[in-house]
């Protein structure tokens, strides 16, 4: 089930990537729900989204820890 949550999180983040504030909120939720190794995978996924939408760069601060 954990893998399903990771895939769901990626889908949600892709859909809300038009709004940086909403995206940041979803990133915060994802960090609380996902397993540590999934968070590492999520960082890679988010970095690819940031390349497409530079305004999402502000949300990377939540992934620094």
Structure characterization notes:
It is a single chain. The chain is built from three helices and no strands. With 65 residues, the chain is an all-alpha fold. The model has no long low-confidence stretch (mean pLDDT 92).
Key traits:
mainly alpha, 69% helix, 65 residues, single chain
Radius of gyration, whole Å: 11 Å
Count of discrete structural domains: 1
Tertiary shape: globular
- Estimated structural class: mainly alpha
Number of strands: 0
The succession of helices and strands, N to C, reads HHH
As a percent range, the share of helical residues equals: 55-70%
Largest sheet: none
Global mean pLDDT: 92
Short description:
This protein is mainly α and 65 residues long.
List the helices and strands and how they pair.
Blueprint: H1 2-15, H2 20-33, H3 36-52
Helix pairs in contact: 1-2, 1-3
């Amino acid at each position: 089930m954990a893998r399903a949550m990771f895939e769901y999180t990626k889908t949600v983040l892709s859909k809300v990537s038009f709004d940086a504030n909403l995206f940041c909120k979803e990133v915060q939720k994802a960090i609380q729900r996902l397993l540590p190794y999934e968070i590492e995978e999520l960082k890679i996924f988010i970095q690819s989204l940031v390349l497409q939408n530079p305004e999402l760069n502000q949300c990377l601060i939540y992934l620094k820890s």
